[in-house]
Amino acid sequence: MKAIRHGGPYDRGGADSWYRRGRYPHHYTGTGSYDGKRIEEADMSPEEIAAYHQGYNDNEQSGGHKDF
Fold first, then answer.
1. 19 to each of 26, 34, 63, 67, how far by Cα in Å?
2. Within a domain: 40
3. Considering its fold, how many domains does the chain have in total?
4. Is residue 1 pLDDT above 60, yes or no?
5. Which domain holds residue 36?
6. Confidence at residue 4, expressed as pLDDT on a 0 to 100 scale
7. CA-based end-to-end distance of the chain
């Protein structure tokens, strides 16, 4: 897995889980969330998709979710 960076696939997976959103693999090309171009699943590599799901799974296992 590539290094974890804000806005990257792993980070976005964890954030989607944290905010109780569904799994919609994506990431951003910039240096942070919502920075740069949004890359959708169709344009992600298998490694990027796996990193997204790992971030989602890791957060689900930790039980961390935002209280609304």
1. 15, 15, 12, 9
2. yes
3. 1
4. no
5. 26-63
6. 81
7. 32
């693999």: which residue's tokens?
25
Q: Is 20 exposed, middle or buried (0-12, 13-18, 19+ CB in 10 A)?
A: exposed
Q: Is residue 56 situated within a structural domain?
A: yes
Q: What is the pLDDT of residues 12-58, one digit of tens each?
A: 999 999 999 999 999 999 887 888 999 999 999 999 999 999 999 99
| Cα radius of gyration rounded to whole Å, the chain | 11
Residue 10 included in any domain: no
Is 21 inside a domain boundary? no
Matching residue, tokens 């951003």: 28
The two structure tokens encoding residue 9: 């696939």
